[in-house]
Amino acid sequence: MIKLLASVTGPHEAGIVLEGGADLVDLKDPAKGALGAVSPQVLAETMDMVGGRRPVSAVAGDLPVLPDVVREAVEARVAADFVKIGLFPASRDARLAVIEALRPLANRTGLIAVFFADGDPDFSLLPVLAEAGFRGAMIDTIGKSSGRLMAHLSMTALGDFVRHARDLGLMSGLAGSLEPPDVPRLAVLRPDYLGFRGALTTGARDAPVDIAAVRTIRALLPASEASDHGVEPVAGRGDRILVRDFTVPMEIGAYDHERGRTQKVRFSVEAEIAPIGADARSMADIYSYDLILDAIRALAARGHTDLVETLAVELAETVLADARIREVTVRVEKLELGPEAVGIELTRRRAGGR
Asked: CB within 10 Å: which end of the chain, N or C, has fewer?
């Protein structure tokens, strides 16, 4: 299950996010930067208020990538269940030195490395983190006004990060000016945590946390878990999610002359879901077409594919992996072979459906 990491400034906001359903209380001071730290005293007060009901994390601060500086900040916060350490822009050697300096603290608190999507992230450090005893790794953003997470990294890159972390036994988290519509898209990647600050407030990132906003995000997370959706086909035709004539350049074709270059490929998808209720008001009540667009982009990004049939079958399987989908029709067309288009259309239905 994907868990909600809620960033708060102290015990008062911690109480609000606990009431709203947060799974991890994350202490930071947004006025001091991307990983602005609260004082050890505020950490202690928040730990007392939470009283073990949920784990508490604390950020080490917006710090230079210097071993002694970072280690001192982490040591001051080892009372937290987790301490998040920013791997800010620096040379690989500097980052390695910080990781090594923190190795002795790995048995005193859960160390979480934070990569920055807009700060030269080096994901090749993931095995180093695992070997040094880190518990997890996250991706966030430094500049909160420069675009949210997915403005800097593709869904393919984010998915690779989550899978690599999982393979290494590391927890994974994704954050960075996330908004409610991002939740179902990122949930497909199955990170352990999604982290929020601005989306939990009454407005700006440094505004107070709002209980209604917390509950809105909390409600989206269970809805994003495919395993949580029972499939109960009903008689008659359901509603249909449409993606029509989405054209992307990609490497496609079985002939030698089609290799090493891209061609335009057009995708159209119709996905049938159970009828949407008249009371649908939020992202938790719908299936987002962004999930289909992301799946198409992932196919285009993976490299050469010989057959359009392969693309169509794999896209249909990906869409049907979400248990809300009852049936899907996929059309894939190559646009550069002479006729207006050549390709395939197929329909797949969930087993046990009508």
From this structure: N
My answer on whether 204 and 269 are in the same domain is: no
> What pLDDT shows up at residue 83?
98
Q: Cβ-count burial of 280 within 10 angstroms (0-12 exposed, 13-18 middle, 19+ buried)?
A: exposed
Catalytic residue among 28, 144, 264, 334: 28
Select which of 3, 84, 144, 334 is catalytic: 84
| Cβ neighbours of residue 136 closer than 8 Å, sequence gap 6 or more | 82, 110, 112, 113, 165, 170, 171, 172, 173, 192
32 an active-site residue?
A: no
Asked whether residue 226 carries a pLDDT value surpassing 50, the answer given is no
CA dihedral (243, 244, 247, 253) in degrees, to 10, reads: 90
Tell whether 18 and 164 lie within a shared domain.
yes
Backbone angles phi and psi of 85, in degrees to 5 = -120, 120
User: Which pLDDT tens digit goes with each residue over 81-138?
Assistant: 999 999 999 999 999 999 999 999 999 999 999 999 999 999 999 999 999 999 999 9
Per the annotation, the verdict on 28 as an active-site residue is yes
Q: Please give the DSSP secondary-structure letter assigned to residue 31.
A: G
Number of domain units in the chain: 2
Looking at the structure, do residues 217 and 88 belong to the same domain, yes or no? yes
